[in-house]
Design brief:
Number of helices of chain B: 13
Largest sheet of chain A: 6 strands, mixed
Helix content of chain A: 25-40%
Shape of chain B: globular
Shape of chain A: globular
Number of strands of chain B: 2
Number of domains of chain B: 1
Order of helices and strands of chain A: EEEHEEHEHHHHEHEHEEHH
Radius of gyration of chain A: 19 Å
Structural class of chain A: alpha/beta
Order of helices and strands of chain B: HHHHHEEHHHHHHHH
Structural class of chain B: mainly alpha
Distance between the termini of chain A: 30 Å
Largest sheet of chain B: 2 strands, antiparallel
Strand order of the largest sheet of chain A: 6-7-8-3-9-10
Helix content of chain B: over 70%
Strand content of chain A: 15-25%
Strand content of chain B: under 5%
Oligomer: heterodimer
Number of helices of chain A: 10
Number of strands of chain A: 10
Chain lengths: ~260, ~325
């Protein structure tokens, strides 16, 4: 498998505080890689750096060899690196289907003027977006809430919708920010299966930040562990579970005997 | 478009272009022409303000563009001898270009910060008009000739206003036509993917940019269209009054444009039109209350905002049982 994303010594300082300190790792095409770490370890900042939502203080992120860490977020998205949000960030006053349709912007071939006058290309786009949105709705099993207003949805469905929005952009790399947060066991297992299928059936490379350890261990090909803004470990789930530095970071060294 | 909508549009056009002139001729209230012409023009400006609301920005600066549009038209007519009809689109375009320059930095601001800057903009424009020599300072530009003949390929579309028996009717028809065109454009924007994208901006700019919407571009575009409407409205106002002064459009006018949108309904394309009609016409009718005019007007406005916070048009939805 070839490397698709390279994070090279990326650093972010807010005044005197170093949120992310010289973190480096590679993501291989088609893998599911999780970034974990205790609260406040800098995971979310790292995500914002990769998707270029905040500028890096130093270091860079390369996507297929090209630097993306100083581009505008919509340009990074256009290249195929798309993030979902930790907060339940969706378009609240739109239905589920409308949310997904509007998220097809990256695939629009018609210009804004074309959409205004209703050109042939614009109508073709609209039709394609509608069909693709229905496809995504079915893929994620959201059929029952297709025309529900997003503001009426429970947490679990909002996460799924966030992922659906990400999918609509036809990403090469999808960054999922805490996709299992606020979900019960069944919802989590369902989501784990969906993320797997995303990779297996659509070939999407997935990078995720997550707290839910059982889910992370189940889903990840590899795991990167961050603590106090620095990478402390990297490896397969089995390696990470056995890594003393990780256990120390999570449990404190004296509790290491408990194991993870 | 379904039959019901088509009938609605036909009914509206009939009312504007046939019923109103007929009603005024029958009642002899010729002064209503001026009022209704103003309503039509102000609602064009309000349509622009409404569009900036639609991308999630509170715009209290439309008066600035109305003033700019007015001056562009006046200066071009008086100094360059250009026909009013040519200055009309030029006034709109001038405002659109200026609004792009101003919008690029200020549209990054949100909420009350953007609102404050736009509020200041009206005052800055007034002071600029006062200071420049091309606008003739405080003396303003007066004795502007009425619009001349508009002809296309030798075919007269609009005769010279100066030769007309009833220029008031002609101005009303001009304003109403422009209003219909503006709202048709606005309706089309809102009901195309363009509107869908604007709504995505209004609801969550961060998410919009993460799905590939060029938010900065779309914001500036919406603001430029908004200012284009403002400029057009201002230019026609100047043609009617045949004069323009730095105080022709002031902060109060900017605030009014915003109020028309609020009261008509921010969620409805035709909200600003209805809001303008109710508020402007209401103010006019209340002149019979003499010194209590402002008191009654403002009390009614407070009552309306409390009773229908989503605008007058939201009453329709409530009756229809829709959400």
């Amino acid at each position: 498998m070839s490397t698709i994303l390279e994070v090279k010594a990326i650093t972010k300082r807010y005044g005197g505080l170093t949120a992310v300190n010289a973190v480096s790792f590679d993501v291989a095409e088609g893998e599911i890689l999780s970034v974990i770490g205790p609260n406040g370890a800098g995971k979310s900042t790292l995500f914002k750096l990769i998707s270029s939502f905040v500028p890096a203080t130093s270091g860079e992120v390369l996507f297929r060899g090209a630097k993306i860490s100083d581009l505008a977020p919509h340009k990074v998205a256009r290249m195929g690196v798309v993030r979902t949000f930790q907060e339940t960030t969706i378009f609240k006053s739109m239905t589920v289907r409308e949310n997904i349709i509007v998220a097809h912007q990256l695939r629009a071939k018609a210009s804004l003027l074309g959409f205004f006058i209703g050109s042939a290309q614009a109508r073709a786009d609209e039709e394609a977006f509608g069909a693709s949105a229905d496809d995504i709705v079915d893929f994620l099993g959201l059929g029952a809430i297709r025309d529900e207003l997003a503001s009426n949805l429970p947490q679990g469905h909002l996460r799924a919708l966030g992922m659906a929005i990400g999918l609509a952009t036809n990403p090469t790399v999808l960054l999922l920010d805490e996709p299992f947060a606020g979900m019960n066991h069944d919802e989590t297992m369902n989501m784990v299966a969906n993320v797997r299928r995303l990779r297996d059936e659509r070939g999407v490379t997935v990078l995720l930040v997550e707290h839910d350890m059982p889910a992370v261990m189940k889903i990840s090909d590899r795991i990167v562990v961050i603590n106090f803004g620095e990478k402390i470990a990297e490896g397969t789930p089995a390696e990470i579970q056995a890594n003393p530095r990780v256990i120390e970071a999570y449990l404190g060294s004296e509790d290491a005997a408990i194991g993870m | 478009m379904n039959t019901q909508k088509l009938l609605g549009v036909a009914g509206f056009l009939f009312a504007v272009f046939v019923l109103v002139p007929w009603g005024i001729a029958a009642s002899g209230r010729w002064d209503f022409y001026y009022t209704l012409t103003s309503v039509a023009l102000l609602s064009i400006g309000a349509a622009g303000v409404w569009l900036t609301f639609y991308i999630g920005r509170i715009n209290i600066g439309q008066g600035a563009y109305a003033l700019m549009g007015g001056y562009v038209s006046a200066v071009l007519i008086m100094k360059a001898g250009i026909s009013f009809w040519a200055t009309l689109p030029l006034a709109g375009l001038f405002c659109a270009v200026i609004s792009v320059l101003i919008g690029l930095p200020i549209l990054r601001l949100r909420g009350v910060y953007f609102a404050m800057v736009t509020l200041v903009l009206t005052e800055v424009t007034r002071l600029t008009a006062l200071a420049l020599s091309v606008t003739n300072g405080a003396k303003g530009i007066t004795s502007i000739p009425l619009p001349g003949e508009l002809s296309l390929f030798g075919l007269t579309i609009v005769p010279d206003f100066a030769t007309m028996q009833n220029p008031k009717l002609a101005f009303y028809l001009l304003a109403a036509t422009l209003m219909v065109l503006s709202y048709a454009a606005l309706w089309r924007i809102v009901n195309s993917r363009l509107g869908h994208l604007c709504r995505s901006l209004q609801q969550n700019e961060e998410l919009a940019s993460s799905i590939g919407v060029n938010t900065a571009y779309l914001r500036v575009l919406a603001y430029a269209i908004s200012s284009f409407f403002g400029g057009i409205a201002g230019a026609v106002f100047v043609a009617i009054s045949q004069s323009i002064y730095p105080s022709s459009f002031v902060v109060t006018d900017s605030v009014n444009f915003m109020l028309y949108c609020f009261l008509g309904g921010l969620g409805y394309v035709f909200g600003p039109m209805l809001g303008t009609l109710l508020l402007y016409f209401g103010w006019d009718l209340l002149s019979i209350a003499k010194q209590y005019q402002l008191l009654i007007y403002s009390s009614a406005m407070i009552a309306l905002m409390l009773a229908v916070p989503n605008g007058v048009l939201s009453l329709l939805d409530r009756k229809g049982g829709r959400k």
